[in-house]
Amino acid sequence: MTDGRRLFIGGSWVEPDGGHYDVVDPATEEVVGPAPEASRAQVHEAAAAARAAFPGWSRTAPEERAGILRRAAGLILRDLVPHAELARAESGATTATARGMQVGVAAARFRRYARVEPVEQALPPQINEAGPFGGAAVMGALALRQPVGVVSCITSYNNPWANPAGKIAPALAMGNTVVVKPAPQDPLSVYRMARALEEAGVPPGVVNVVSGSRAEVGEAAVDSDDVDMVSFTGSTAVGRRIAEVCGRGMKRQLMELGGKGAAVVFEDADLGSAVRGIGTTFSFYSGQICTAPTRVLVQRAVHDPLVARLADYMGHLTVGDPRAEDTVVGPVISAAHRDRIEAYVELGRKEGARVVAGGGRPPLDRGFYVAPTLLADCTPDMRVVREEIFGPVVVVLPFDDEEEAVALANDSDYGLIDYVWSADVARAFRVARRLRAGGVGVNTVGRNMEAPFGGFKQSGVGRDVGSYALHAYSELQSIVWPG
């Protein structure tokens, strides 16, 4: 099919200037297929195509745009099984995760933004006295959301369906056009998404997809003069470099960056609930998720029982082939990332942390697997406590009282999502309000998909999800008139 070997630019499937590179299955180390390698010129061509398509698309009736998004959702679900199989092969996700949390969530996000929402808000009239700008008058005003223009959507490898959909769908719903640069590890799924949008009737140039393994491809998607906004999900280090380029061009930004989420567990907490929530770090995407509660801060009275329960939980996690029904923990994305995670575990040992469970490589013949690992006896200054590992590794620190818990949780460069477990709901919400994080889960790691999502500090800029994503992909304009 053309949607795996060619770029999608201006409504056409285009041969890549740079040839192809191999996409590797992290579970088998076998080649999934060839992915197109775009040149800088082709990325700029895609941005120019999006620029040319913007005037017509932005003037399209919101209902018409919504219809295309709704059809795209249906087409994605029509082919859910083959799409999920490709996502599993590219990303190493388990079959259940690929179907439900990747392809299924992507379709849900297209359906969500097929809901037409008002973009105008009438403001209270203001009485102005006579002055240098005219006589006395009652002034009416309207706040109006306008599309930003051309948006570069640079997506992460941990979810090749839901992450791009979460950018493309609200951007299109607001009347923007997009250039999508998928993660180099798993871009083939995004071309499938482009195929569904094409079949759904998206006009030429409104959606463009350009992939590549070289840094220059992503750089071109940021520095093109035709790009008005960059929406990026990835590491804080890359986010800083993107922000520098955006600053020079005054480009708008939406950045969802790293995380080192704190799970604050008080002595009165339901330890079973806390263990299940923290355990998602080990199992969900093999810990490759920025929202994971990777720093466990536990009140000293229940420190040892919680550590023991977490170790026992890990003992029931099956690590292996993500195609197998009983697999809970699949591989990480690459050999290089596996080596990086293992280096952090070894660093933790050298820093004085105690390896309670895991710490070695699973005895599998092939694949990029990391044993889920629990590190106790940690201190706040350790690098394994302060730096994002992005793998199935959890560190545990004790605290004595609420003040110390808050101080430890906030002692981080990151601030994406933290968590609080306590039977005292008043205390849980009191602590939640003091945490310097964009989101806080109280007795849950669940998400409300209408709540704003984004980070404090080094965890990002801006908010998306629900109606907040429509705000993120729009500019606010005011219109004033005499009453």
UniProtKB/TrEMBL annotation:
Signal peptide: none
Pfam family, one: Aldedh
Keywords associated with the record: Oxidoreductase
InterPro entries recorded: Ald_DH/histidinol_DH, Ald_DH_C, Ald_DH_N, Aldehyde_DH_dom
Sequence ranges assigned to domain Aldehyde dehydrogenase in this UniProt record: 13-479
Domain of life: Bacteria
Alphabetized Gene3D superfamilies for the sequence: Aldehyde Dehydrogenase, Chain A, domain 1 (3.40.605.10), Aldehyde Dehydrogenase, Chain A, domain 2 (3.40.309.10)
Molecular function as annotated in GO: oxidoreductase activity, acting on the aldehyde or oxo group of donors, NAD or NADP as acceptor
Family: Belongs to the aldehyde dehydrogenase family.
Descriptive protein name: Aldehyde dehydrogenase
